[in-house]
Amino acid sequence: MTEHNAGKNFSTKYDKTWKLIYYEAYLDEHMARIREKKLKSFGSAFGHLLKRLDMGNKKKEG
After folding, report:
1. 2 pLDDT exceeds 60?
2. What is the C-alpha to C-alpha distance for residues 25 and 14, in angstroms, rounded to an integer?
3. Any idea where the domains of the chain sit in the sequence?
4. Which residue has the higher pLDDT, 43 or 51?
5. Calpha distance 7→26 (Å, rounded)
6. Residue 54 DSSP class
7. Burial class (CB in 10 A: 0-12, 13-18, 19+), 44
8. At 61, phi and psi to the nearest 5?
9. pLDDT higher for 47 or 11?
10. Residue 37 in contact with residue 29, Cβ under 8 Å?
11. What's the pTM?
12. In the chain, what is the greatest distance between 2 CA atoms, to the nearest angstrom?
């Protein structure tokens, strides 16, 4: 998080104010990569995550 906010990460360099609002932990990197792929590939998985965070309504309003 510190590297993102300091602009050291290329992909987030220009949007520097990051705040951690959700965290998922996995026992191994393989399972974490599978979850990341699902979130990035399937809109429904991302939608369920937003719903879990109660951000679904905020997304539609903005």
Report:
1. yes
2. 27
3. 2-61
4. 51
5. 27
6. T
7. exposed
8. -70, -35
9. 47
10. no
11. 0.52
12. 37
